[in-house]
Amino acid sequence: MTGKSPFEALSVETLSTRLGTNEALCAKIGKDTGAWRVREVGDGNLNLVFIVEGANGAAVVKQALPYVRLVGDSWPLPLKRSFFEYHALTRQEARAPGSVPAIYHFDEGQALIIMEFLSPHIILRRALIEGRQLPNIARDIGLFMARTLFRGSDLSMVTKDRKADLALFADNAELCDITENLVFSDPYFDARMNRHTSPQLDGLVAELRADRDLKVEAQRLKHIFAANAETLLHGDLHSGSIMVTDSQTRMIDPEFAFYGPMAFDVGMLLANFWMSFFSQRGHEQQGTRDAMRAYLLDVTLETWSVFRAEFSRLWRTERTGMLYQQSLFEDQGDRLGAEQALDHVLHQIWTDLLGFAGIEVHRRILGLAHNADFETIADEDLRASCEAKALKFGRHIAVNRRHIHSIDEVNQLAALIEQENGI
Ligand code: SR1
Ligand code: MG
Q1: Can you tell me the distance from the alpha carbon of 180 to that of 265, in angstroms, rounded to the nearest whole number?
Q2: Which of 195, 215, 285, 340 has its CA 20 to 30 A from that of 135?
Q3: What's the pLDDT score for residue 4?
Q4: What is the pLDDT of residue 364?
Q5: CA–CA dist 275, 391 (Å, integer)
Q6: What is the pLDDT of residue 285?
Q7: Rounded CA separation 274/129 (Å)
Q8: Is the CB of 68 under 6 A from ligand 1?
Q9: How confident is the model at residue 1, as a pLDDT?
Q10: How many Å apart are CA 144 and CA 201, to the nearest integer?
């Protein structure tokens, strides 16, 4: 199969024939296609994902479909998202080495990427639902975010290169459009594809959709998302986009990559930890998840603290871009000026990430794309109670984000809301 053939979706039955002569794949898993075992394992919303095992090893083949898999061919979606995923992965590997799967081959025409099979890794969301405490995730993800977000921005890059890259990723417009609608707008009105746990949440949902302050804040955040082309984002950094073992963490699936505000990745990620926190009650037998809840709040604290520390280190040692130039500060003997500016930048990220986190929580409960943390709670009353607490928390941090000063404060709020009865 070459990049020149017309696009055709792979299947378990056709993969060996179609990729049997692919040099990169054969080099990795062995040439004897008779020994290949192919499984389709994609459980995401958009793409096909195959694991191919051969005599010498295994690889993942990920292929975009010309439509949204979750919805079907009534929602067309361009294949070029695979191109953006490939280019985002190469940039992430350069900026945060060892944080993403290795790429073996990219075929733009077939919209497919052949990459490292991560084993025995599992999806972080699944691990958290199972109540597993991973010791390294906060450090690994905090470092990944600081390194990719800093090194993809005008704090670090040659301006001309960054502008060229910005132009390249600007074409990922359809994926941005998904986020712009599904995350920032649809949850706040009765959009066609929305769903929520009903009737239990009906009253609260109506209240939130009538909440003017919340709607205005969501639109202010959408404005920042759409207009602040600050750095190359992962664009969809939730716990379903991270694979883990006890000792390793890998970020996957950056097909939503584009130039946007640094706080978006950080906020979306932390929101997923807070949602996991609120969902734990749905997965426990009487108090057995107390330690898990404490662990999750610690993870948010450590992730943010690692992010800040690494971002600050890069600010002091790698600030070679056109923003906050060293020639204006350190070179003038004004190191304090550089620190003051750093403080300002981190404060802005902090304030905005709280907003993005609150909105992410809402869209996972009110919109189209729900998450397994809540969805796997079979008892609907219990699920609704967990979701209601998360919704209340999300509203508070989004609307009051300018008045919240520390992650301790946020975590105390989360713990208080989680303890409330009758929600
Ligand atoms: C129609 S796509 C729905 C969601 O799945 C992806 O993982 C993104 O989070 C997107 O918003
Ligand atoms: Mg994904």
Answers
A1: 14
A2: 285
A3: 75
A4: 98
A5: 9
A6: 82
A7: 12
A8: yes
A9: 55
A10: 36
* Cβ 225 vs Cβ 260: under 8 Å: yes
pLDDT per residue as tens digits for the range 172-191: 999 999 999 999 999 999 99
Q: Residue 113 and residue 93: Cα distance in Å, rounded?
A: 15
Cβ within 8 Å of residue 12, ≥6 positions away: 38, 39, 40, 50
Distance (Å) from CA 84 to ligand 2 centroid: 13
For the chain, residues with pLDDT lower than 70 are 1-3
The residue contributing the CA closest to ligand 1 atom 8 is 236
Give the contacts of 39 (CB within 8 A, at least 6 positions apart). Answer: 12, 50, 51
Question: Which of the ligands is closest to the CA of residue 183?
Answer: 1
Is 368 strand, coil or helix?
coil
Amino acid at 170: A
159 to 231, 233, 343, 345: CA distances (angstroms): 12, 17, 23, 19
The atom of ligand 1 lying closest to the CA of 183 is 11
Q: What is the pLDDT of residue 345?
A: 98
Spatial neighbors of 148 by CB under 8 A, at least 6 apart, are 91, 92, 95, 96, 99, 231, 232, 234, 265
Residue 77 Cα: closest atom of ligand 1: 1
pLDDT number for residue 291: 96
Contacts of 226 (CB under 8 A, 6+ apart): 176, 180, 260
Maximum Cα–Cα distance across the chain: 68
H or E, element range at 372: helix 372-375
Contact 392, 423 (CB under 8 A): yes
Q: What 3-state class would DSSP assign to 50?
A: strand
Q: Which ligand is nearest to the CA of 360?
A: 1
Find the 237 Cα to ligand 2 centroid distance in Å.
Answer: 8
In one letter, which amino acid is 293?
R
DSSP element (H, E) containing 260: strand 259-260
Structure-token pair, residue 161: 């290169």
Q: In terms of pTM, does the model score above 0.70?
A: yes
C-alpha closest to that of 293 among 417, 155, 136: 417
Joined tokens for residue 411: 């975590």
Dist CA 125 CA 239 (whole Å): 5
19, 61 Cβ separation under 8 angstroms? yes
pLDDT at 315: 98
Q: Which amino acid is at 281?
A: R
Assess whether the C-beta atom of 236 lies below 6 angstroms from ligand 1.
yes
Distance between CA atoms of 130 and 145, rounded to whole angstroms? 25
Token pair 């219990």 in the structure block, residue: 382
**Which amino acid, 326?**
Q
